[in-house]
Known about the structure:
Layout: E1 5-6, H1 27-40, E2 45-47, E3 57-61, H2 73-79, E4 83-105, E5 108-126, E6 132-138, H3 139-152, H4 163-177, E7 187-188
Parallel strand pairs: 1-7
Antiparallel strand pairs: 2-3, 3-4, 4-5, 5-6
Binding site for Fe cation: 105, 147, 151
Protein name: Peptide deformylase
Cofactor: Fe(2+)
Amino acid sequence: MILSIVAYGDPVLRKRASDIxxxxxxxxxxxxxxxETMYKASGVGLAAPQVGLSxxxxxxxxxxxxxxxDLSKEEQEVLKGFKKVFINAKIEEETGEDWAFNEGxxxxxxxxxxxxxxxxxxxxxQDENFKTRTEIYDGLVARVIQHEYDHIxxxxxxxxxxxxxxxxxxxxxxxxxxxxxxxDYKMRFPNLxxxx
Length: 196
């Protein structure tokens, strides 16, 4: 089932999400719905807060980035078929150089900005079978994970921009929160009675 993606301005996007236990009701169904919603919106990642649920859950399928010819063959191989569910994730460490990459977000449509992040992360999480894992990622995979992880911490990519850039984007962000934007996927706007 396709879920509504909540737009910028919704308070759920600003909450630190709660842990999930293995007995969480209809978790497999929720994960399936999140995959379907993400693909319908042409995204590469989607976090539970983006569908209105303050839960420490996100899904990533970085496969679309594998076609980027600017990447090394090695990085293209890593991205190809990188499809994972992250439950109760915790980034243990971020290391390496800061590097900029143009990011966007399904909750903030039509705004893309360069964001600086560290290039390597160590992350602990549980997969969809609640098997605990600790893994190290770098490059674009690390970037996508960091972006989605921020969502479960109540952080948006626009928070990482300079104060000048934030001021320049303010009116566009206000329009998004009021639903004054056209998107080709189902969204729920905080300042409207009914989403579309």
